Amino acid sequence: MFARSLILAAGFVLASVASAADAPKWEAGKHYAVIDPPVATSTGDKVEVLEVFSYACPHCAHFQPYADKLKASLPKSAEFTLMPADFQPVWLVFARGFYTAKSMGLLDKTHQAMFDAIYRDHVPMQNIDQVADFYAQNGADKQTFLSTAQSFVVEGQLEQIRSREMAYGVDSTPTLIVNGKYRISAERDAGVGFDQMVEIAQYLVAQESKKGKK
């Protein structure tokens, strides 16, 4: 009986260890949030990884190297995208500049450069004219930039920001949204910093890629 009890106990311990090993490292409701209902994505058959950010957010500037790391690590089944937030009036100025630059094909050149201009070089950026000056120094015609910034297309994109923030449940930046289903943000109490945000996004992308685009 004693030997049998030892065998049963050992089997229970091994099963418990195996179960712990199989348990996911990241938990919904603790390390990331589930978005219900899910939000439609803009990346077709690819899993969307969306960063909600602002050039006016210093934390987003600090997160940028992590965003680059995440973007570079994504499989072919996923695509990284950006959405500016509009929490304050000056944030909306940057959002207007972002969508204008995007329409002019400038973002690859200017995204990091904008953070550098604000936080390294301390270039004043309080209104759309100053923002246009920055983009003019990076390949845009200033007058074309300013006229595009007031276009119906850009206005329409700005009008969608608030509803998308509400649908995602975003109340801070930077925030990552994976496939319109999951929200990831830094949470000190849950042990989620910028490194962990990247890891969680990679984990969720892998899960969504296995399931296929839904």
TrEMBL record:
Work out whether the entry's keyword set contains Signal: yes
Q: Where are the transmembrane segments?
A: none
Cited Pfam families: Thioredoxin_4
Q: Which InterPro entries match?
A: DsbA/DsbL, Thiol_disulfide_DsbA, Thioredoxin-like_fold, Thioredoxin-like_sf
Please verify whether the record's keywords include Disulfide bond.
yes
Report the main location listed first in the record.
Answer: periplasm
Q: Which UniProt keywords apply?
A: Disulfide bond, Periplasm, Signal
Query: May I ask which residue range the UniProt record assigns to the signal sequence?
Result: 1-20
The record's subcellular location field reads: Periplasm
- Ranges for domain Thioredoxin-like fold: 46-184
Q: Which family does it belong to?
A: Belongs to the thioredoxin family.
Q: In its UniProt entry, what is this protein called? A: Thiol:disulfide interchange protein
Species this chain originates from: Dokdonella ginsengisoli
- Lineage of this protein's species? Bacteria, Pseudomonadati, Pseudomonadota, Gammaproteobacteria, Lysobacterales
